[in-house]
Write a structure and sequence with these properties.
transmembrane; transmembrane helix; 4 helices; DUF423; membrane; mainly alpha
Length: about 130
């Protein structure tokens, strides 16, 4: 595979698999234990993770350069911070041990995702 960055392919594939697993976990096990608002937040994390897993796979298949590598890195970090902090917040709140330090991490992850998308738009504008 010439000029293809396998890192976003691997990370995107792993994020996709984890998203399916956590989505099923939410639909079956958590549905009985979580408040509806917490379940909705958990599902938001799962959806955003899957959307961005697909983006990472797409980015990995594109001819590579430093700009796309930076976009993929920012998206990878953003997913980790955004989705996984949501999982931690909702699960810890469900089991009465809320990890409050995760609260500020979620918007940082969201900013990384927005910045990644903006960088991608800029990349396309400069083709």
């Amino acid at each position: 595979m010439n000029n293809i960055n396998t890192t976003p392919l691997i990370i995107g594939s792993i994020y996709g698999a984890i998203s399916v697993i956590l989505g099923a976990f939410a639909a079956h096990a958590l549905k009985k234990k979580m408040k509806p608002s917490l379940l909705a937040s958990f599902e938001t994390g799962v959806k955003y993770q899957m959307y961005h897993a697909l983006l990472l796979v797409t980015l990995g298949l594109m001819p590579q350069n430093n700009k796309l590598t930076n976009v993929a890195n920012l998206i990878s970090i953003g997913v980790f911070l955004f989705s996984f902090s949501i999982y931690g917040l909702t699960l810890s709140a469900t089991f009465s041990k809320k990890i409050k330090v995760l609260g500020p991490i979620t918007p940082i992850g969201g900013l990384c995702l927005v910045a990644g998308w903006c960088m991608l738009a800029y990349y396309f504008m400069t083709l």
